[in-house]
Amino acid sequence: MNSQYKYAKEKYASIGIDTDAVIKKLRTVPISLHCWQGDDVHGFVSGDSLSGGIQVTGNYPGAARTPAELMADYDFALRLDGGAHKINLHAIYAVFENGEHPDVDELLPRHFAPWVKFAKDRGLGIDFNPTCFSHPKAEKWTLCSPDEEIRKFWVRHCVACIRISEYFASETGVPCVMNIWIPDGMKDVPADRTGPRARYLKSLDEILGCGYDREKVIVTVESKVFGIGLESYTSGSAEFTLGYALSRGITPLMDNGHYHPTEMVSDKISSLLLYSKKLALHVTRPVRWDSDHVVRFDDETKEIAKEIVASGRMDDVIIALDYFDGSINRIAAWVLGLRNFRKALLSAMLTPHETYKKLQDEGKLTELLVRQEELKTFPFSAVWDEYCEECGVPTGTAWFDEIEKYEREVLLKR
Ligand code: RNT
Ligand code: ZN
Description:
Number of domains: 1
Low-confidence stretches: none
Strand content: 5-15%
Order of helices and strands: HHEHEHEHEEHEEHEHEEEHEHHHHH
Bound molecules: L-rhamnitol, zinc ion
Number of strands: 12
Number of helices: 14
Largest sheet: 8 strands, parallel
Distance between the termini: 40 Å
CATH class: Alpha Beta
CATH topology: TIM Barrel
Helix content: 40-55%
CATH architecture: Alpha-Beta Barrel
Mean pLDDT: 97
Structural class: alpha/beta
CATH superfamily: Divalent-metal-dependent TIM barrel enzymes
Strand order of the largest sheet: 3-2-1-12-9-8-6-4
């Protein structure tokens, strides 16, 4: 136990918080780490460049080029945050062997066998995503396509992904969260807003209708307000997605980069949890737009974590990270986001929510503000350091020293 922790423990105890219990719980909260930060959303299945209205900028050296490199880097990142994790894969991270090269509507569980080994060796669950972009058949529409052949192609792709998700769950013993996000939309004002949405709904019904084990696969749908080149309309808007998820008993996914700049996901969590058994999040950082910057320990990140914890429904909220920055060391980008969201959760768990709720209900709003402001200078870092020590991961910026060494010895040689 570090000496400062003793003081911190007493300080938090004075407001009714048991820091030992918090640390214990924090270690069990799974954060799903997205594999695509490691290679700028390239994947291994084709030479197609990134499409779908999303963009990675920067050409910092050392991006992973092969499954082996990505796995090594991923492993490195995962080891620098002590808590529970899952890995999060996209369909384009299939690993083909013996010269085979199926199209994405023919992907099979065995194409992900190396990932299953990776996950099982580390006791991790796996989350999954169909990749409805970066493909010649995704140049216009995917699940919303008016071209029946194209639409069916993407339905087959998503069904193939459900089978792969079932395989992940069976192999790891951990349910697989399979998230559907499509970039379908319009650059300019649509003549027909309904048609694409009706086709999206039909496609989703066909996908879910494939018959799958809902205990093993948790299907989520992610909404989005716009994309690059898709500024005027997206089929999978917030209303479409929420309506679909709630009416079909699947899980809505909110990515905090996918709303108008002044709309806050932190304010949406409490509403959705009243209607949905589960809620999934992509935690990211939008700078002016859906720019997918590395998650910082900033106000909105803290507020999102606060809402998760204060809801008392932490186990119903599925937490994944989703950003991609190619302008800085990619492993550091992973670790920063992971540790920052973990810190945000810690900060939320070190808050006396019940006391605050009572003050709000009693109308003691001056006292609430005073207490909230005082809490900001509590010895948070001592509890964070204790968490790191108990997990056996570096405190402070010592984790970055390890990454710099890895950069010199491995990344710069690529
Ligand atoms: C895109 C969505 C989506 C992707 C990943 C790669 O705007 O956020 O979740 O980032 O599937
Ligand atoms: Zn996302």
